[in-house]
Amino acid sequence: GADNGWLSVQTLLLLGTSIAFFVAFPFVEQRVKDPMIPLTMMRNHQFVRTLALNGLPAVVLFLCLLYLPQYMLKVLGWSIFWSSMGMLPLAVVLASKNLLVGNSDNAIGPRKLMAAGNACLILGCVLMLFLQTSWGYIALIPAMLVVGLGGGLVFGPAGTAAVNAVGARGAGLAGGLSFMFHLGLGAIGIACATAMMFLAAIRKVEAVTSAASVSLPAGDLRVLAAGTLEDPAVKAIIGRFSGTEADAVTNAVRESFATGLHAAFWFGLAVAIIGLVVAISIDESKLRTDAPEEEAAEI
User: Fold this and answer.
1) Is the CA virtual torsion 151, 159, 43, 38 positive or negative?
2) What is the pLDDT along the chain (299 residues), one digit of tens a residue?
3) How far is Cα 90 from Cα 61, in angstroms, rounded to an integer?
4) N or C: which end of the chain has fewer CB within 10 A?
5) d(CA 280, CA 52)
6) Which residues of 269-297 are buried (b: 16+ CB within 10 A; e: fewer)?
């Protein structure tokens, strides 16, 4: 979409093909001997909800893992090494909470833990929406801590709840599907958020350069919106200008990423709110490790 246009033939063909495969998938699964996703399991509403809770929070987590290092690199001017080290607050909290939350699952219950986790993810997205580039790295730490805490509260209980929702005989498949939804929904979410991010970034570049009376072709706007000040292509564009015009183009590159990041986290906020609603709707009485086989197909 960024390279060819969102309404180009290539983009529309890819989108249409993916939708066609998605629609055809359940019909194929009904007819094969050994389906990847048994449709009887997907009629279990509690199982489907727990699968969603394995995937929806991954969108916010993936947004942080993908774009916060780039923020440190492109906006704060850090090196690749220190941008990686800057993610330690999120990584440490996420890992430690994942290790500790298992002891709380039976005492507190998965529904409360997953609801609290999604609430933390909502707060993390809100903190990112108020982020200002002038605040520096310190402003990122609260958001990373909250998102790490939220992810740690959700993922462990969501995986256990998915297995418990179908009983012992479906445990292996439930665990595999949980991880598939974690990666699949996370990837789809990142794709949608990145599209929103790029559109917001390119509009910001156009607005900043236009305000400085700098006229740029569409191709240059895309390069500036997607690049960094260290990119040769970006340097070449800036090198065509001097004085205040060069400063304006440089400032547009810096501000475009922060603006795009805000747009991406608006999407993350919407996904986290959906996750909270789904978590609250979980019926814990149907999440039992001793659930009989026939309950795996319960509607």
Assistant:
1) positive
2) 767 777 788 889 998 999 999 899 888 888 888 888 777 788 888 888 998 999 999 999 999 999 999 888 878 888 889 999 999 999 999 888 766 666 665 667 788 889 999 999 999 999 999 888 778 899 999 999 999 999 888 888 888 888 888 877 777 888 888 888 889 889 999 988 988 888 888 888 888 888 888 888 888 888 888 777 778 888 888 888 888 888 888 888 888 888 888 999 999 999 999 999 999 988 877 776 544 444 444 43
3) 9
4) C
5) 13
6) bbbbbebbebbeebeeebbeeebeeebbb
CA–CA distance, 50 with 153 (Å, rounded to integer): 14
Contact predicate 110/160, CB 8 Å = yes
Q: Say whether pTM exceeds 0.85.
A: no
Write the CA distances from 20 to 23, 37, 102, 119, integer angstroms.
5, 18, 40, 35
The gap from C-alpha 87 to its chain's centroid, in whole angstroms, comes to 16
Contact 162, 149 (CB under 8 A): no
Among 255, 206, 264, which Cα is nearest to 229's? 255
CB of 209 closer than 8 Å to CB of 252: yes
Q: In whole angstroms, how far apart are CA 71 and each of 45, 113, 214, 227, 255?
A: 39, 30, 25, 12, 11
